[in-house]
């Protein structure tokens, strides 16, 4: 597991990067653990202002950076795969090419769960 330094953000965003490497089943467990930590997160009492709506939305979201060559598999022909994911799991799936000339080549895939 590697977490970007506090001042290092994903190009074109204000978000830090967590990189995982390992066996697929272990990565799944780590992602679930990280999501549980985020979902149970509460703003510290010292927080001067809290974006409650943004905080709740963040708790339902997962963003992945995938190689441009893999993005097509996630989207599917005519968007078929994304449509199937939306129907099967009741999520929103968005893809966007990051707006940067950074040498990191990738597409951002955001999965957002519907409100509970």
Describe it.
The protein is α+β, with helices and mostly antiparallel strands and 116 residues long. It contains 4 helices and 5 strands. It has helices at residues 24-39, 52-59, 68-75, 80-89; strands at 2-3, 18-19, 61-66, 91-97, 107-113. The strands form 2 sheets. Strands 3-5-4 form a 3-stranded antiparallel beta sheet. It has a two-stranded antiparallel ribbon with strand order 1-2. The longest helix has 16 residues, at 24-39. It starts with a strand and ends with a strand.
The radius of gyration computed from the alpha-carbon positions, rounded to a whole number of angstroms, is: 16 Å
On the 0 to 100 scale, the average pLDDT is 82
- Structural class call reads alpha+beta
Distance between the termini: 29 Å
E-strand count: 5
Strands in their spatial order, largest beta sheet: 3-5-4
Order of helices and strands: EEHHEHHEE
What is the helix tally? 4
Largest sheet: 3 strands, antiparallel
Helix content: 25-40%
Quick one: overall form? globular
Low-confidence stretches: none
Strand content: 15-25%
Short description:
This protein is an alpha+beta fold and about 120 residues long. The chain contains 4 helices and 5 strands; from the N terminus they run ββααβααββ.
Labels describing this entry:
about 120 residues; alpha+beta; 4 helices; globular
